[in-house]
Design a protein that fits this description.
Blueprint lengths: L5 E6 L10 E11 L37 E7 L2 E9 L1 E6 L4 E5 L3 E5 L4 E6 L9 E11 L10 E5 L6 E5 L5 E8 L2 E3 L5 E3 L18 E7 L4 E4 L8 E8 L3 E3 L2 E3 L3 E6 L4 E4 L6 E8 L7 E3 L2 E3 L2 H14 L20 E3 L5 E2 L2
Antiparallel strand pairs: 1-20, 2-9, 3-8, 4-7, 4-9, 5-6, 5-8, 6-25, 7-10, 11-12, 12-15, 13-14, 15-22, 16-21, 17-20, 17-22, 18-19, 18-21, 23-24, 25-26
Family: Belongs to the pirin family.
Organism: Rhodoferax sediminis
Protein name: Pirin family protein
Length: 347
């Protein structure tokens, strides 16, 4: 009988496979060229299926955008999106009347709850140099009791996100950004990184849900041991998405992979390649309820999906108050968030 903490290992696909309580995880890494006067790519769009361009032609896609890349208005109900922007900027607008420009390490955590329509556009502000964009979008399920919660978004500005830097015996560093889930690291003298508070109706806000979302950046040759999770029944996935090779609990992983590991065991990671290695960790206790999904709607029964579609046809989840169907927020690169009701914040 195997004693390895590795339960499953498979190549990364698109989107990345997830396990309860997560529904979806996608990684966008687009090498956008310099921008034009409309904040779109200063390049020909010939040969692209505009409105549905996931081609990665020349290293980037337009997605559902026609002038500016991104995702024009679309609805959600019954779950949350966690958007981690590592490079570039996103312009958010929603049916609650809220707007935001965020990126460069920021995270937006949006509880769709009973329903919201939002757009996520990628303005290319730099006209003299490329506009790289790199982000994760993670869908975190809501339990039945919270699926009709009020919509709510929270901004985690980059400078406020806890980051723990651990050094191994040879002084090689591993940096862990803690977006959710307290990290108590015996590798770093029991140092602690306490995350910012998730939205109030989130599964991550439940003390026994043991939700963690961490990003790891390992120097060449670095060793770091992921501590065992706190929760009983917690499940954990590691996504090795950047770097040449790593070892996980002594097992070589020579290509980018999704790795489910036992959450109740500490797992040693070694960056065995000659370049920086990066991983995403997702963990949580399963919600353990039926999942019925129809596109951007995630409920517990088919009847609830039918009701959701009827509600959306009838109300449009509040409607769209913006003149543009793919709004961008001007050329000022300053990040901001304007919440429903008018409260404004800036990093």
């Amino acid at each position: 009988m195997s004693t390895s903490p590795i339960l499953h290992l498979k190549p990364l696909g698109f989107p990345w496979e997830t396990i309860d309580p997560f529904l979806f995880c996608v990684y966008h890494d687009d090498a956008y060229p310099r921008g034009n006067a409309q904040m779109g790519p200063d390049a020909s769009l010939a040969g692209r299926d505009i409105g549905q361009d996931f081609s990665r032609k020349d290293g980037w896609s337009m997605y559902h955008g026609s002038t500016v890349p991104g995702f024009p208005p679309h609805p959600h109900r019954g779950f949350e999106t966690v958007t981690i922007v590592r490079k570039g900027l996103i312009d958010h607008s929603d049916s609650l009347g809220a707007t935001a420009r965020f990126g460069r390490g920021d995270v937006q955590w949006l509880t769709a709850g009973r329903g919201v329509v939002h757009s996520e556009m990628f303005p290319l502000l730099e006209q003299e140099q490329p506009n790289p964009l790199e982000l994760f979008q993670i869908w975190l399920n809501l339990p039945a009791r919270s699926k009709m919660a009020d919509p709510h978004f929270t901004m985690f500005w980059s400078q406020d996100i806890p980051r723990l830097i651990a050094k191994d015996a040879e002084g090689r560093t591993t940096e862990v950004a803690v977006i959710a889930g307290r990290l108590q690291d015996p590798n770093a003298g029991a140092a602690v990184a306490d995350p910012l508070a998730p939205p109030p109706d989130s599964w991550a806000a439940q003390a026994d849900a043991d939700v963690a979302i961490w990003t790891l950046r390992m120097a060449p040759g670095a060793r770091w041991t992921v501590p065992a999770a706190r929760g009983e029944g917690t499940r954990r996935s590691l996504y090795f998405f950047k770097g040449a090779s790593i070892t996980v609990a002594g097992q070589p992983v020579a290509s980018h992979a999704a790795i489910e590991v036992r959450a109740d065991a500490a797992v040693e990671l070694v960056n065995s390649g000659g370049e920086v290695a990066e991983l995403l960790l997702l963990q949580g206790c399963p919600i353990g309820e039926p999942v019925v999904q129809y596109g951007p709607f995630v409920m517990n029964t088919q009847a609830e999906i039918a009701q959701t579609m009827d509600d959306y046809r009838r109300t449009q989840f509040g409607g769209w108050s913006f003149a543009d169907d793919a709004p961008v927020h001007g050329r000022d690169p300053a990040r901001f968030a304007k919440h429903p009701g008018g409260r404004e914040e800036r990093p």
